[in-house]
Amino acid sequence: MPTALNSPPEQLLRQMIGGAPGDPPALLNHPTQSATAIDGWKSFLFGLPFIAAGLFMMAGVFNMLHGRKNAPTWLLAIFASFFLFGGLFFSIHGLLGVLRKAAYQRHVAAHPGQFWLADHHWRPEGISFSAFRSMLGRLAGVIFWYAFLIPFGWVGLNVRGTGRIFLIVPLLFGLVGLIFWARWYRMFRELLRYGSSHLTYDAFPFFLGSTLQARLRISRHFDSLDNLTITLRCVREKYVTTGQGQNRSTTVVCYELYSDATTFTHDQLAGASSSYLPISFRVPADRPATRLSDTPPTYWEIEARGNSSTATYEAYFLVPVYPPN
Hints:
By secondary structure, the chain is α+β, with helices and mostly antiparallel strands. It has helices at 8-17, 40-61, 73-110, 116-119, 131-158, 168-194, 266-271, and strands at 126-129, 197-201, 206-207, 211-218, 227-242, 249-265, 277-282, 298-307, 313-319, 321-322. The protein has a 4-stranded antiparallel sheet with strand order 1-2-4-7, with no helix packed on it. Strands 6-5-8-9 form a 4-stranded antiparallel sheet. Strand 8 (298-307) and strand 9 form a beta hairpin. The longest helix is centred in the N-terminal third of the chain and has 38 residues, at 73-110.
């Protein structure tokens, strides 16, 4: 059963998201399945004004509109790209969500007894965790973070007087970005040390009230881990809005509805280093089933987290847990 965290970070998070003591525990720094806290037609329409603004600014950047430029072309192009690509992200995300919903409804109507096939693009044999893709995603986030600070830095360096105040933004947030670099470096070390991982399902799908059995394989250096903790977890994501008026913001927060964990010692891992590590959990019958097609989704996952003197190991695998027929 999940245990509510009482550490200062957890208490601070509860204050930020307005959680009550009886709420499920929120998961700090947990990867989300939701790309953003807005979906469907709302996301599509939300992105359109940003696309229009980005195209308008790009037209000015490439002299398609008459006017005087007050900054270098490269800087204006960066600024315009924030609007253009940000708008494209929201609009494409929303449109794809609408198409997925329609495809889900069609598949459920055609195969009412196997709705899990429409809920997610499952592979019955198992699922892989790409350490390279995770590392690359983290790197892209860090690069975007610093690219966003470039216009502030240019204004601070080139505009005298009050413009110097803008230097505070890249200096402060640039220091914060060092935390992101540290996290990226940790993921990069994990990639070099362990490579990608694969979780093989012994059955497909798994049902509430049954036993979940699977096998974990790490590409290399499996037996170098001092310990490895495997956690079965049910996660529900929510769109949480904080603040008031113009200071309101909405974020995706992961809540732990259920968890069960087992830890393997170094000796146990050494015995399984040449094959797959067997994993077995009893799935309770009174917990929600996987609903990845919902917005926001509910899902079950296997988290693998290990430690060694060289590099830590961390991987997440979705597992198909659905109501019995």
